[in-house]
Here is the input.
Amino acid sequence: MGFQTDAVHAGQKPEPLSGAITIPIYQTSTYHQEELGKHKGYEYGRTHNPTREAMEKNIATLEKGKYGIAYSSGLSSVQALMGLLKQGDHVVISNNVYGGTYRQLELNMTNYGLSFSWVDTSDLKNIEDAIKENTKMVFIETPTNPMLNLTDIKGTVEIAKKNNLISVVDNTFMSPYFQNPLILGADVVLHSTTKYINGHCDVVGGILITNNEKIHERLRYLQNAIGAVPSPFDCWLTLRSTKTLALRMKQHNENAIKIAEYLESQSYAERVIYPGLKSHPQHELAKKQMTGFGGMISVDFGTFEKAKKVLNRVKIFALAESLGGVESLICHPASMTHAAVPKEEREKIGITDSLVRFSVGIEDAEDLIADIELALK
Ligand SMILES: *Cc1c(COP(=O)(O)O)cnc(C)c1O
Here is the structure.
């Protein structure tokens, strides 16, 4: 089936009691058992929930995977992933991942005997060079947040296979509509469903998707064992959202291209970073492994004063953390999303105090451009 057909139907059948077209919110913590040892496969709400199962199946299908294992946030799915490893294991990971991922892994998981090499994975040689005897996983985020650096997924997977490593791709920025790492051979895809998949700034959630039976078994076990599961209502909202994912992504993409081109054609910015621009150093790779460029744009305005002016003056773009919603957002990574990353590390990867990140929504592009123009003048 095509993406949009799957988006509307995958994982969902009319509900058997009444024939309701929309899967109900199974707001229950437990299930009645007919007699001792005889039940319908549902025993307890943390372990099983029909609304959650429908959402998991739906997103897994869109990501071209067999199994989806949902968690209560993107970061709890990062945490669950670490359950694939043991004390003493080492991970090679992109040095410019989501700030919270860095915090969770480098500042917490290192206390439990895991170690991480933070490398610029946009150069595959850096991945190869960082592999040690105890390396068990390679974790990439592409494009990265907020620098929008790309990593060659296929190349990464080849290195992982050669060295017997689990390959993980955080695909939050592209959504399953524009990029499918499992097709390129990755073992696990991670999404913060908070972002594009839910897309309406009203749910925090995460999901891991895999085709690997053994990995699925372990992650399913951890979902129940850790217990960081999403609520039935959040699952229902997310499932409702995936139905329009394709439509939203097309609009995010179209608007972002217009805004990036506008900003590049003006002299306001020192540097406009967007994978869809020819000036992006990895534009060719973007065209190769993605089918669109997404809705995220980062702009270096040269000075903090200028950046502050834009951040404080825009009216349609809301100053807020997060991204991927239908409403346009603007943020200052250095003091907001990436404040947990030490300043020295931040500057090394380009997160200067003059960098502004735009999450372009689905409003009218002309209005969004006028909003930025007015703020700059
Ligand atoms: C937001 C985000 C996360 C973390 O997800 P939460 O749902 O906020 O816990 C992980 N990776 C990326 C790329 C993100 O943007």
